[in-house]
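Researcher: We're teaching a course module on how sequence relates to structure. For the next exercise, students receive a sequence and then see the predicted structure as tokens, so they can try to spot secondary structure elements on their own. Here is the exercise chain.
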Amino acid sequence: MVTPMRRIVLWLMSTATTLVLLFGYHTSTSSQAVAGGDSAVVGPVSSGTAGGSGASSSAGGSGSTTGSTVKATTVTGDAASTRWGPVQVAISVANGTITDVSVVEYPNSNGKDRQINARALPVLIRETKDAQSADIDMVSGATVTSEGYVESLQSALDEAGL
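Model: And here is the predicted structure for the students to work with:
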């Protein structure tokens, strides 16, 4: 009778150990694949600081230099502090319409952040251009970034008077 009881206890303990190890194991996505996807999708978003200014001056500079009828203005919202890091959005506005959106700052300190934001930021940018407001849907799986994005976007919209 002692032997079956020991077997049951041993089975329960090994099952519990296996479950703890299984749920405690942090899988690593291929950092090479994430970096490759990151540069293709998020690269233009992160280049919103330098590239966005260049794009704005290219679009805004051309518009203000050649013709003063279309005057593009770039407004940067306040950085929204999130659990994973700050999120800051810049918008380009011409004639009361959002013409371009760039994400100046966003969480990208690890592969998971880069993976999530490579998928979420283009969706948020597209939604902003379509809605022409901060009344956009959150991206599933990127709730924290989405909330920070909307907060910074609203700040930029307020500053732009939209």
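Model: If you want an answer key for the exercise: The first helix runs from residue 2 to 24. The domain at 26-160 is CATH 3.90.1010 (Sufe protein. Chain: A).
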